[in-house]
Specification:
It is a single chain. With 148 residues, the chain is an alpha+beta fold. It has one domain: Chemotaxis protein chec (3-Layer(aba) Sandwich), CATH 3.40.1550.20. It has five helices and eight strands; from the N terminus they run E-E-H-E-E-H-H-E-E-H-E-E-H. It is globular, with a radius of gyration of 17 Å. The mean pLDDT is 91.
């Protein structure tokens, strides 16, 4: 299965429209889909997305009962916030105001490939995250070298 990879920055217009990167659209279209599914991330100031097919198994984790039952609360949170956005003829989607606010998207959005899914970030926030990750990887690499 094709994966979402790479980093792409696209403009967000005043109506909340943003172009889904062509390589990401190719992944979606290869799966026979015409939309993306997006939800506000549970633990950060960004959005998470994929093809809607990724969420079909997640749905099975939620109890279908009239009586509350212990379940998969993360699945419940995701499914409660998940929205499907059809791609228009130019490969754009319209993100609602609450999604734009969650990720602080004003003018630009960065699509950040993560294999089976992608993230949508405000550019400076993503760069800060990547710098922190680079620092952790460098520290771990140096620690391993020191232990050999």
């Amino acid at each position: 299965m094709k994966a979402f990879f790479g980093t792409f920055t696209n403009k967000v217009d005043a109506k909340g429209r943003v172009s889904v990167p062509a390589p990401f659209r190719a992944v979606i279209q290869a799966r026979g889909l015409t939309s993306i599914a997006v939800y506000p991330a549970l633990f950060g100031p960004y959005l998470e997305g994929a093809g809607f097919d990724r969420f079909e198994d997640l749905q099975k984790q939620i109890s279908d009962s009239f009586v509350p039952a212990p379940g998969n609360e993360d699945a419940e949170l995701i499914m409660g916030e998940l929205r499907e956005f059809p791609l228009d003829s130019e490969g754009r989607v319209v993100l609602p105001d609450e999604f734009l606010a969650k990720a602080n998207l004003q003018g630009q959005a960065v699509f950040y490939g993560q294999g089976p899914r992608f993230e949508i970030w405000e550019p400076a926030a993503l760069e800060a995250l990547k710098e922190a990750k680079r620092a952790r990887v460098a520290a771990a690499t140096l620690a391993r070298r020191g232990n050999t």
